[in-house]
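S.,

Sequence below, as promised.
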Amino acid sequence: PNQPDREELVFNTGGRRVTKIRYLLGEIFIMTGHGESFDSFPAIAAHVTAYARMYLWQLMQQVGYGNYMYCDTDSLIINEIGLDNLHDLISSTTLGGLKIEKKTRSLIIRGLKDYTFGSKTVIKGIRKNAIELSAGVYQQELWPSFRGLLHNAEPETYTVKTIVKHLSREYTKGDVSIDGVVVPFVFDDSVAIP
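The prediction came back faster than expected:
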């Protein structure tokens, strides 16, 4: 009781262990179990993720080079020719079938998870209710996380801050040509890496 809310790491050099102790609302919690839980098997999730990525790659090949504009974890933005190439896989009733989410005549791609599809703008890290101050500059609320509260000087006070985010929008996954086509970086196997 009367202890400030906080987290502490206790290093036991003899047993080579680290224990996390959380003081919260007058209670003391010892955090244990930092390993995998009993029925956890990450290899299954890794396999499903890898399979999904390879399936997305297969769909991109079927769409055809130049007929897809953007891909994300579980979606492709394609043109009419690409849509025709996927025609046999599109079904709103078949389990695992592809579906058309939306169509548009206007698409602006600024980078990864940063695009305008018709009237909908998606920008990773920018809230939907953010205020655009200028191009690439947004003002929005920042809500503290639980961990952030514990690191605060006054953890009993929940303060929502207003912050300004400046987006660099620099693309670092390849070279962007003048017409917007991305040429991916290729590693030269003949170069010896020290």
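Residues 37-101 form one domain.

Coffee later?
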